[in-house]
Amino acid sequence: MAINRYEARQAVFELLFETEFRRDEDHQAIFDTSVEHREIEVDPYIQDTYFGVLAHLEEIDALINRHSNGWKTSRISKVSRSILRLCVYEMLYCREEIPESVSLNEAVELCKKFDEDKARSFVNGVLNSVKNEILGAENA
Question: Which string of b and e fits 8-33 if b means at least 16 CB within 10 Å?
Answer without folding.
Answer: bbbbbbbbbbbbeeeeeeeeeebbee
